[in-house]
Give the backbone structure.
Amino acid sequence: MEKVLVLLTFLGSVIALVFALVTAKKVLKFEEGTPLMQKISASIREGANAYLKRQYTIVAIFFACMFVVLCIMAATGLLTWFVPFAFVTGGFFSGLSGFIGMRIATKANCRTANACRTSLNRGLRVAFSAGSVMGFTVVGLGLLDISIWFTLLKFVFKLDPSAITSAMLTFGMGASSMALFARVGGGIYTKAADVGADLVGKVEAGIPEDDPRNPAVIADNVGDNVGDVAGMGADLYESYVGSIISASALGVAAFGGELKAMALPMIMAALGILASIIGTFFVRTGESTDQRTLLSALRRGTNLSALIIAVAAFFLIGSKVRAIIGTGAQQLYKVNPLIPHRPCGFFKRAFGHYRLAFFQIARDFTTISHTEILRTDNAHVTQFAQELIELVPCHIGDIVFLCQRLSGVRCQRFCRPLNF
């Protein structure tokens, strides 16, 4: 079962990367426009490549130093040997995501402008397709990194789920380090170029903003690409990977090392890729230049993808949670067969087996036995609630209501009656 889950995650990453490659080739088939468009685009692309080459050289030195530091800590027993390599891979894929996004953006700018000369919808399709290349590259590389590390740690090094999540959290730190350099460095560059272009062009020379006769405008557009595209790509990669790994870590902690709970966020991410691919085909507009019309076209694809993943998540999460809870309850009943297993009331309509775990809490951590809880007596319900509230960080009204649903008693002292 675990191999199937990993395979699905890996397939999701492959689908995202293949879709990004196909979309990039489709964008590059559009005409670049007039010679002046091509010249300006080439100048922006040359400046962006020069900046990233310089930035990534400095970042490589930083990662090399951090790799040595982490190796020393691993040698002294403070960290595992997976940490240095996970840190480097996280930073590498984060930087790669930003670089690919910047490359397609600098090649699509003139193609988008030229497509708008034909129709607004054509220009929107070129611009949106170019942006989706970076988006699917981010999620594809993120899931690829996660699936490779999960496969190595689980099936090669035979680690338990808690150790796997602890090691995988490290490449989130590497991605964050790369995103810090890309976002902050690119942001400083683009803001300095923007202010310089305005001072030289509008104030001193008296020419319009973004006029191609102003050389600083090229630097301004270079900054937009390295800061808002390459920097954003690295930042999105870090956020995307970090959210999946943190959710997996919470699943391991909440369900006692259950591997299905750990793999659930990865499967959700893979389904999200399929939903996003479907949504991209619905981003279309007419010839109206009204902002509301353009935003409506973008919302159409976004909302459709969200609806698809919401429906898929309902069935996926519901089945997984019920399976996990059912397995735990069956194990609990095997340990203590005296626990009553006849479902009742609200819990019969919900998860059913929750009642077993609830009685286990009553048996182990309070002085009230499960047979006394079943008595329709307000005193027993109130006493049990007062003892349990010291152990569970919850409002006492919720605890009393839980007791009421089990015993059929309504305790007016702490909360009003709640009816379904």
The radius of gyration is 28 Å.
